[in-house]
Amino acid sequence: MKRILGAALYWLFRHPPSSAEVVLPPRGAGTIAEFRDADALTEAVRAARAEGWTLFEAYAPHPVPDAAEAMGIRAAPVGWLAAGAGAAAMAGAYGLTMYLSVVDYPVNVGGRPPHAWPVFLPAAYILGVLVAALAALLAMLWLNGLPRLHHPVFAARGFLRASEDRFFLWISPDDPMHTPEGAQRFLRAQASLRVSEVPPS
Amino acid sequence: MSTESPPPSTARVAEAALRPLGWGGWLGFALAGAGVVLLAIAVARLLWVGIGVWGNNIPHVWGFDLIAYAWWIGVANAASLFAAVLVLRRHGLRTAVNRFAEAAALAAVLAAALYPILHLGRPWLFYWTLPYPNTWGLWPQFGSTLVWDFWGISAHVLVTSLFWYVGLIPDLATLRDRAARHGRVGLARFYGLGALGWRGSVAHWHRHQAAYRMVAALVLPLLLSAQTVVALEFAVTVVADWHQARLPLHFIATGLPSGLGIVLALAVALRHGLSLREFVDRDDMDLLARLLAAAGVAALLAWLHEAGAALLQEDGATRAAFLVRLGGPAWWLAVVMGGLLPQLLWWRPLRRDFVFVPVGLLAAAGVWLDRWSLVVDGISRPRVPFPVPAYAPSGDEWALLLGSASLFALALLCFGRFLPIVSMYETRHEESEHEMEEEER
C-alpha cells in the first residue's frame, strides 16, 4: 500500500523531463500575407480551402461576407441562440410572476382575479426582448472566441493596419500542412503585397 | 510600415476623437459640467428634504417628473428607432448618422432613467420593485405600473447600450491600433479592453453583423413597449382624460418629432463643431430634415385623432377635461411647434443648417409642451370638492430639468471626445463597395 501511495505521489510531483540539453529554435506563430483589397483576400481564401489548408484566419477592416461564406462560416446560430434565449426568458418571466402572484402569495386587489393574465404581459415581453439582445451579444462573443485580449497574430508585421485599410490571411502553425516554406510558397502565389513569418510572442 | 500609401479615409474621424480640445470644447464641457453639478444639488436636496421641495400636490400628483420622463423616453425612442431602421435597411445614411443617433438615444435614456427613481419619494427603496426573496416573504405587485416601469426602463437602458456597444467594438479596435501606432500604450490598453481583443477576422465580422442586426431588430419591439409602459401609467388611472386606450399610440407618434428634432440639431453641431462635413453631408441632412417633417405629419394625425375622439366620441367627463386642456396654451403650442413647424422643411430652400437647429429644438420643445398639456392641464379639472391651486413648478424642478439636459449634453460631449462619432468600419465598407462598382463600370 505504502509503495503504491509513494509511487503515486512521486508521479504527481515528479519534475518534468528536463529539456535543457536540446535547444529548439523558437517556434514561429504561423505565416501571414497582406492584401490590398477584399477581392484579393476572398480569392486567397477560396484558394486556401481548395488546396486543403484547414487552420487559417482572414482579417479585414470591414465585413467581407463573400470571404466568410467561402470559409464556410454561418451566422445563423447567433440568431437562433438569441431567439431561443428570448423565448425562454419570456416564458420564464411570465411563469415566475404568475406563480408568485397566483400560487405563492395571492393578493386580492379590488376583487380582480389573481390570474389576470394581461397584467403579466408587459414585464414578460420586455424581459424577453432584453434577454434576446443580451444573448445576441454573448452568442456572438462566444462563437467568436472573444474576449481574447491577446492573439499571436497581433505580433505580425504591419498588422495594426488590419483595423484600418489592409487585408490579411494568416495560416496557423498548428495546420497539419504547415511548414514555413510551404505556407510562404502558397501565400506568395496569391498576389499578396507581402508575406512574412509571424514572430513568436 | 509603408508610408507612401495615402492615409485611410476614416483617419479624420479617429483624429476627431483623439485630438486636444479647443476653447469651444472646453466651454461646452464647463457648461454641461456646471449643469450636472446643479443636478447633483437638486437631487441631494430632494433626497435630504423630501419630495415636498417639488411643486406638485393633490390633485397634481405628477408634475415635471413625469413630463420630463415621458419626454426623454420619447427623445430616446425616436433616436433609436431612427438608428435601428438605418441599420436594418442598410441605408447609405447609416454610415453617417446611426452611431450618434444611438449615442443620443443612450444619453436620453440615462436622463429619463433619473426620474422614475427620483419620483418614488423614497428612492433608496427602489429595489422593492425587484422580485427578490426577502425576510417578509412578500413579492412586488406585478400588476402595478411601477413594476412594469422598473423592467421597462432597465431593459431600455441595457438594450440601447448594447445596440450602441455592439456597433462600437470594431471601431474601438481601430482606435486601439491607432493609439498603439502613436506609441500611447495606456490609451491603447484602454481602448483594447473595450474592443475585447477584436482582431477583424472575417468569421468574426460575419457573426458580428448578424448580432448587430439582431439587436437592431430587437430595439424596435422594445421601443413600442417603452413608450407604451409610460402611456399605460396614465391609462390605468381613473383620470378622465388619461384613461384612454389610444394613449400608447399617441405617445409613440408624438414622440417622434422630439427625437428626430434633437438628432437633426446634433447633426448640425457635428458638421460644424467636429468638422465632419463630408461624413454628414447635404444629402444626409436633407433626408433627416424630411424625416422630421414626416414625423410631424404623424404627430399631427395623433393630435387630430385626440381632438376628434375627445370632442365627438367620448363621454361628457372626458370631453370637459379635454376642453380644459384646449383652454390652455400648451396644447396649441405643441401642435404648432411639434407638428406644423417641421412642415416648413418640405420646402427645399429652407433646408439649411441655420434653419435646422431652431426647427429641431422647437419641435422637441413642442413635444415637451404636449406632455405638459396631458400631465398638468389634463388633471386641472379636479375631482375634489374644494378649490386647489394650479400646479406651478418649483425651482428644484427647474434645476432637475436643466440638470438632466446637462447630463444629456455631457454624455454626448464625452462620447464625441473619446469615441468615433461616425461608424468608421461602415464608412470603409461603403467606400470599398463604391470602388468595386466603379471598377466594374
Automatic annotation (TrEMBL), chain A:
Q: Which residues cross the membrane?
A: 78-100, 120-143
Q: Which Pfam families match?
A: ActD (PF11821)
Annotated keywords: Membrane, Transmembrane, Transmembrane helix
Protein name as it appears in the record: DUF3341 domain-containing protein
Species this protein is from: Sabulicella glaciei
Q: Which InterPro entries match?
A: ActD (IPR021776)
UniProtKB/TrEMBL annotation, chain B:
Name the domain of life: Bacteria
Query: What is the membrane topology listed in the Swiss-Prot or TrEMBL record?
Result: Multi-pass membrane protein
Q: Transmembrane ranges?
A: 21-48, 68-88, 100-118, 150-168, 215-239, 251-270, 291-310, 330-347, 354-374, 398-419
Q: Which family does the record claim for this protein?
A: Belongs to the NrfD family.
Keyword list (alphabetical) reads: Cell membrane, Membrane, Transmembrane, Transmembrane helix
* PANTHER family (alphabetical): POLYSULPHIDE REDUCTASE NRFD, PTHR43044
This protein is called Polysulfide reductase NrfD
Q: Where in the cell is it found?
A: Cell membrane
